[in-house]
Amino acid sequence: MGSRAGSEDLSVQARRRREPPLRLDRRRIAVLPFSNMSPDPNDEYFADGFTEGLIATISKIREVGVVSRTSVMQYRKNPKPIRDVAEELHGLDS
């Protein structure tokens, strides 16, 4: 399993494309869906369970807001560049 979004910092990506950096709340996090890298497509539930487990665990930290599972699971079958994901999720409530 691996994260679909790159781990590169958004400001680094913005500099490469010469775009202004997004002003994001660093106290909010979105756990993006993990990929099923198993040869068996029926193992998809492992990746989904891992994503859900991380969301549940992080949501217990009071100082951190977590974007809901419903909001992030749309990227499981439709991956997008991390900047697009950040822009789309930026205004959502946790």
How would you describe this protein?
The chain has helices at residues 10-17, 44-58, 69-72, 82-89, and strands at 28-29, 65-66. With 94 residues, the protein is mainly alpha-helical. The protein has one domain (10-89). Helices cover 37% and strands 4% of the residues. The protein has a two-stranded parallel ribbon.
What's a concise summary of this model?
The chain is mainly alpha-helical and 94 residues long. It has one domain. Helix content is 37%, strand content 4%.
Key words describing this protein structure:
94 residues, mainly alpha, two-stranded parallel sheet, 4 helices, 37% helix, globular
Detail the topology: elements first, then pairings:
Layout: H1 10-17, E1 28-29, H2 44-58, E2 65-66, H3 69-72, H4 82-89
Parallel strand pairs: 1-2
Helical stretch tally: 4
The backbone outline, from C-alpha atoms, is: globular
Largest sheet: 2 strands, parallel
Counting copies of identical and different chains, the oligomeric state is: single chain
Please mark out the parts with pLDDT under 50 across 5 or more consecutive residues, or reply none: 1-6
Order of helices and strands: HEHEHH
User: If you average the pLDDT, what whole number results?
Assistant: 81
Q: What class would the helix/strand composition place it in?
A: mainly alpha
Radius of gyration: 14 Å
